[in-house]
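Bumping with the actual sequence this time:
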Amino acid sequence: MNHFIFFILSVFTLNVFCSPSQDTLTIAITGDIMMGTTFPNMALPENEGKQLFLDAEEILSRADLAVGNLECALCDSGNTQKVISDQCFAFQTPTHFSARLSEAGYDFLSLANNHSYDFGLSGLESTEKALDEQGISYAGIKGRTHSTIIKRNGVTFGLCAFGHNYYTVRHNDISLVKSVLEELRPKCDILIVSFHGGGEGSAYSHLPYGREFYLDEDRGDLRTFAHFCIDNGADLVYGHGPHVVRCIEVYKGHFIVYSLGNFCTPYGMNLKGRMGYAPLLEIKILENGTFFSGRIHSFIQQRGVGPRRDTSNTAAQEMKDLTLSDIKNNPIFIDKDGNMVLNDYLSSK
């Protein structure tokens, strides 16, 4: 594609994102959040983390709904049953840091991950209490909160979350997944699914076909799972877990992102190279739940600081490259700035 054509396509995508011709809803999506930890040693950002989301809060707050994944326990004390090693961590974030999440604009956070139970039931209950006090909804813990409902501006959003740990609502239990979706679908206008799965680290950027295994755990067949969710009523599916970004897909008109990587993890996680890519996706969907347009806002994490804007659009380029590589016959076009639109829209212009 020559530079002139690419420029014209970029203008089209930017115009359709900024000025959609139809009524749309905007969903802001990020990956893992762990704002700092007091275990096993004190590692917290300065000023109680009040600058962590400084560059992102405008985008999060202006969305109809902002969602992510909370990768820690919000608690002020307690013991962990984990055996801490180079491959096993426990994160304990002080409860007063929960205010940073509501200030940033988050409406929903998945708890279906391998750190929600780092400090046992008491740590989980503390997390739930802290989020309740901030008015932030959550889901993903088996036997506690399989799904939740959020009403915004006359629209009812249904949200659910799935993980691979024994205490989560597991994505490998397809009959359970189906029952959660079937129970939630009649109650909402828009149904959003979150999942935690896949291998971890830079070697796991590409989305494989079939099941993934990591540390002797079955981390799921994520292509099949995401498609199953759409086939059974989901409107949008977002993933996290690998600590790196993965590809994007539009399947039967609905948006899927397979991993958003780390978003706000200033301490306790490797932020070198692609592990530091921190995209914030702003997705516009039609009232029937189908994808209309979107943008990958690129951020880079800085140790002790959090996500900061990246004018070189590194995360967007990485997600574009992975999408071209890993999703065949994908109907989505992503430009160099991270703007996204369906190819059918471009061909009609």
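The tokens above came from a reply further down the thread. Residues 1-8 have pLDDT under 50 and may be disordered.
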